[in-house]
Specification:
This protein has a domain of about 130 residues: Pleckstrin-homology domain (PH domain)/Phosphotyrosine-binding domain (PTB) (PH-domain like). Helices cover about 25% and strands about 25% of the residues. A hairpin with a 5-residue loop joins β3 and β4. The C terminus is likely disordered. Keywords: ANK repeat, Repeat. This is ANS1A protein. One of its GO terms (biological process) is ephrin receptor signaling pathway.
Length: about 210
């Protein structure tokens, strides 16, 4: 979609310090009015008892890779990403299996030991427990694009929140204003790896825009 976007995003290098690319993958409208779908294998999820940011994500990747390495059949899903969040869609029957709101997602990262594997952490608001969901793809660049698209989804959500705040009438109560201090997605390339490990993690914030 080459139409001029009505929403201005910061480039990845500003929205995500150390990002090794200068441009996002998609027009913002793609994440607002449509969705970005990626096929991936779902290795499973595990409870995170001690949340330690990206380290927890990478630990979960290693454990899930080991526990599934002898499985003959691993579920194939479509990850449908928008600025609102991520849906797991069954690749065979197109049913929605699970859905995670963008505000409840954090610590998205590739596995440094296997760049085709990646994961992100979600928070269950009812129990306050954190779970890490682990995936794999057939191609390193595809995994990289998924991580970058997640980063763009956060940036789109952040800019829409700012836009909504500016549109509020003067005198709106401070308690009603949306938190705007986003802890930005921080993809970091590992030395010596082209388009390699992209790590993103940040503090959880009330507005749910942090990684």
């Amino acid at each position: 979609d080459r139409r001029e976007s009505k929403l201005t995003l910061r480039p990845p290098s500003l929205a995500a310090p150390y990002a090794p690319v200068q441009n996002w993958q998609h027009q913002p409208e793609k994440l607002i009015f449509e969705s970005c779908g990626y096929e991936a294998n779902y290795l499973g999820s595990m409870l995170i008892k001690d949340l330690r940011g990206t380290e927890s994500t990478q630990d979960a990747c290693a454990k899930m890779r080991k526990s599934t390495e002898h499985m003959k059949k691993i579920p194939t899903i479509i990850l449908s990403i928008t600025y609102k969040g991520v849906k797991f869609i069954d690749a065979s029957n197109k049913n929605v299996i699970a859905e995670h709101e963008i505000r409840n997602i954090s610590c998205a990262a590739q596995d440094p030991e296997d760049l085709c594997t990646f994961a992100y952490i979600t928070k269950d608001l009812q129990t306050s427990h954190h779970y890490c969901h682990v995936f794999s793809t057939v191609d390193v660049n595809l995994t990289y694009e998924i991580i970058l698209t997640l980063g763009q989804a956060f940036e789109v959500a952040y800019q829409l929140a700012l836009q909504a705040q500016r549109a509020k009438p003067l005198g709106a109560g401070a308690g009603e204003m949306i938190e705007t201090k986003s802890s930005k997605p921080v993809p970091k390339p590992r030395a010596g790896m082209r388009k390699s490990a992209v790590r993103a993690c940040g503090q959880e914030r009330p507005a749910g825009l942090g990684w």
